[in-house]
């Protein structure tokens, strides 16, 4: 404000009854629309949270499945490093294929000859979706497979299975690439 400027005149006082009447008339005219808008927004938020949870749940399941694949590969490399003769077949850990949920096994579940090589041992310490086992195959000169199986959708049927081969001869042991039946990422419903 400059010194030459005249001050603005004060605003006229407002009548509180006029404001109340205009607010009431506003609600009368727009109330049903606002209520419908609020309901639509609430419905949208509920749907988004449900879909978001399902997406996160599927992402976690896919990540755990891929972790199990890496763990099986680690066990395959441990068996390869021990060389011939390969260990006998192991019992599955856990004994039953998990049905659409992660399970956590105890270290004692993994105390088997096929999980040890010298001072090194193999185990899965966190949640797992698969049942793991080593299967010695007598039809091969000296070979076997680490096999993992999962029922990702919980319907009682194995829908993801992977095999990790180890084959040994007089020159040493070799590992094969994973052979998969099914996918870690379940198909959306």
Description:
The protein is α+β, with helices and mostly antiparallel strands. It has one helix at residues 16-82; strands at 116-117, 120-121, 131-137, 143-150, 160-169, 172-175, 179-181. Strands 3, 4, 5, 6 and 7 form a five-stranded antiparallel β-sheet that branches. A two-stranded antiparallel ribbon has the order 1-2. β3 and β4 form a beta hairpin. The chain is elongated and about 105 Å long. The N and C termini lie far apart (68 Å). Mean pLDDT is 79; it is low at 52-56.
What is the topological layout?
Blueprint: H1 16-82, E1 116-117, E2 120-121, E3 131-137, E4 143-150, E5 160-169, E6 172-175, E7 179-181
Antiparallel strand pairs: 1-2, 3-4, 4-5, 5-6, 5-7
Summarize, please:
This protein is an alpha+beta fold. The protein is built from one helix and seven strands. The longest helix has 67 residues, at 16-82.
């Amino acid at each position: 404000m400059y010194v030459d400027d005249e001050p603005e005149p004060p605003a006229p006082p407002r009548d509180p009854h006029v404001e109340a009447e205009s607010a009431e008339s506003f609600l009368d005219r727009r109330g049903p629309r606002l209520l419908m808008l609020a309901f639509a927004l609430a419905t949208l938020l509920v749907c988004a949270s449900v879909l978001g949870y399902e997406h996160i749940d599927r992402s976690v399941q896919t990540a755990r499945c891929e972790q199990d694949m890496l763990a099986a590969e680690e066990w395959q490399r441990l068996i390869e490093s021990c060389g011939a003769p390969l260990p006998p077949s192991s019992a599955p850990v856990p004994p039953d294929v998990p049905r659409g949920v992660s399970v956590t096994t105890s270290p004692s579940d993994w105390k088997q000859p096929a999980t040890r090589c010298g001072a090194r041992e193999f185990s899965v310490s966190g949640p797992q979706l698969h049942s793991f086992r080593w299967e010695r195959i007598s039809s091969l000169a000296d070979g076997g497979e680490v096999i993992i199986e999962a029922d990702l959708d919980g319907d009682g049927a194995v829908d993801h299975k992977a095999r990790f081969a180890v084959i040994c001869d007089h020159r040493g042991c070799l590992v094969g690439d994973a052979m998969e039946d099914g996918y870690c990422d379940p198909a959306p419903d």
